[in-house]
Amino acid sequence: MNKFWTKEKDNFLKENYPKNGSRFCAEKLEQDITKVVKRANSLGLKVIKIHELIDFESFIKMDTPEAVYIAGFIYADGFCRKNKPQISIHISRSDMEEIYPTLCKFGLWNYSKYQSNQGRSAYVHTANRGIYNFFSEMGYKEKSYMEPTKILNYIPENLRYMFWRGFIEGDGTWYCSKPGRGTFSVVAGKEYLWTEFIKMLNELGIESFGINRRTRDCGSTSCVSFSRFENLKIFGEYIYQNREEDKIGLTRKYNKFLNIMNKPEQRKIILTNIETQEILEFTSLTKASNFLHVKFNKLKEACLTNVILNSYLCEIRNPTISIKNNNEVSPTPCHHQELSNFA
Predict the structure, then answer these.
(1) Strand, helix or coil for residue 79
(2) Which of 13, 113, 183, 285 has its CA 20 to 30 A from that of 269?
């Protein structure tokens, strides 16, 4: 009678038992699970725990977009336990399905699904000691009130935009009221200072934003927000550079930014001859815009493309020239109250 355990089956166990466990091997070999475990023990085989499958040494180098994105996302929306080595993320199931492949680029994380008050949710965690120690050293246990200065200084400058992409997709919101208009906001604890975030905004040339601190029954928060189109464009193009190529992050948030950027072309004003003559009767363009019910900037743009009115703009900037109805100029002084509009 031939023995069941052949050299080929022993090799199968050596290759699959540590990673896939006894149940998987028993099913593939069509053998009782207790006998599979006994044979594995005799061969000195042990099942590798899932957190040991993560290549933390590659991860903590922080030299890839995926690793830096994960670091930013966890800083915003993850947890670094204080009483045991565990890093975890709780988010909606649809969002988790999109970022889980990025998490697993360096190895497998434990993944479970559940139903919460917010709906279909998902939970991932790892007990990998190397990753836990790294995040602990970078201040992730105190991230609710501590700035991400350590991790930002550790990350190469050319990849820091990926940290902010992860950070924003964890705690930030793009709100599009209509194409071409919207608001960006990001929330943290009430005592959070936003030093590093504001520093990044200023480096991008964004200096117009608001910081609000609120106390509610559900907790205290602080929020940074801005809505000027030019600022939204600069900031979005910074964190989403290369987004079409790398495909890293939450598509729904990226699409909201794109919707805001989908600014409809503004209708240019073409002035008739009659309107041109009417404008020439005014000593300031503000009065002309009020009379014609046209926005000042649009009317000024139209005047710049009109030969007669372009000259008119130059003339009303000069307080020593007066404008007559027939578009003739005289050197007599003319006091204009709103010359600052054209400065």
Answers:
(1) strand
(2) 183
